[in-house]
Design brief:
Function (chain B): The transhydrogenation between NADH and NADP is coupled to respiration and ATP hydrolysis and functions as a proton pump across the membrane.
Radius of gyration of chain A: 20 Å
Shape of chain B: flat
Strand content of chain A: under 5%
Oligomer: heterodimer
Number of strands of chain B: 0
EC number (chain B): 7.1.1.1
Number of helices of chain A: 11
Number of strands of chain A: 2
Structural class of chain A: mainly alpha
Membrane topology (chain B): Multi-pass membrane protein
Largest sheet of chain B: none
GO cellular component, one term (chain B): plasma membrane
Helix content of chain B: over 70%
Strand content of chain B: under 5%
Shape of chain A: globular
Largest sheet of chain A: 2 strands, antiparallel
Helix content of chain A: over 70%
Structural class of chain B: mainly alpha
Strand order of the largest sheet of chain A: 1-2
GO biological process, one term (chain B): NADPH regeneration
Amino acid sequence: MELTVITNLVYLLAAVLFILGLKGLGHPRTAVRGNLLGAVAMLMAIVVTLVANEIVKVEWVIAGIVLGSLIGGVLALKIKMTAMPQLVGLFNGFGGLASVLVATVAIIDAVTGFSMGKAVTGLVQRLGGVAFDPQFVVATAFSAFVGGVTFWGSLIAFGKLQGIVSEKSVRYPGDQIVKALVFVASLVMGVLVVIEPSNLTYYWILLGLSSLLGLLLTVPIGGADMPIVIALLNSYSGIAAAATGFVLNNTILIIAGSLVGASGIILTQIMCKAMNRSLANVLFGGLGGAQVQEDLG
Amino acid sequence: MDLVSLITVFVLAVFLGFEVITKVPPILHTPLMSGSNAISGIAIIGALIATGAENSTVSTVLGVIALVAATINVVGGFLVTHRMLDKFKKKD
């Protein structure tokens, strides 16, 4: 059998295990098994990717995995139970960072004439020369945008719960307008990246704007609402991973990413209901914070 | 795979994601969030491809940073979820 066929079959099996794992995590009796199924699926996807992609720089791959496992393992095992929500927020930020960096490597490689892998079609042959593949460019810009918001938003969420950043709902007059302007500016920059991918300046500005948006969206939210925000950012990191899947033409990234993206939204809604909050209120209103201030005043 | 097949896979997975989570008891909210966060560490696959390709120094360096970040997300995510669920068991 061809290697790509085997790879995609293993990816399919991993996808099935991810689905069963997520389903299991939602019920008390099956939660532990669900988590293990997810871990097994991840391991399968990693191993088959290493085998199928004829990885050249093995030493770098090993170094990265060992270092990441050490840091992740120590953090997960040493942290106090009370500090777990912010740790999840921090881990989520790292996931978003990974998506951003992969998109960045992909576009740098494409601009400098390299290809990131067999399945990646950054540049395609067109009449009159080589051109950027529209799917590749749109997905790269989208991944950079969502990943940037996820990374910086998660860092702020972590900082608020850890007490590094003010837990209070930080608000100022016209903050909604500032957020809207930065959002529109990032959309414009995203379109410019799509129109002219070879000019990396647009891409760097897009990264800067999405990072700023991540900060602006999270700073105004009070500490009590942070678990909801982390659940939402978790959904975003899934969406970023799915976008990266479209950059790399990789099915397991698309499936696992969109599963987390969609289920994360549902979980966010469930958590909002449990805390008697509406999502719009948490994100834009900050009514809880305002009410407290009025009561104090 | 062509774009239409990829979009098909994407849309079906989104629907599945919406359906797979139903009636989660509050005590499982945080572990579920943590577990699905570990799954979103699937970006590690992209990081592996980015690091492994023999391209420029810049892309290798960025790839390795991506790989470290994604591995922290995956390993830490599954471990911390396991710890959370372990605590619930002892309470029963």
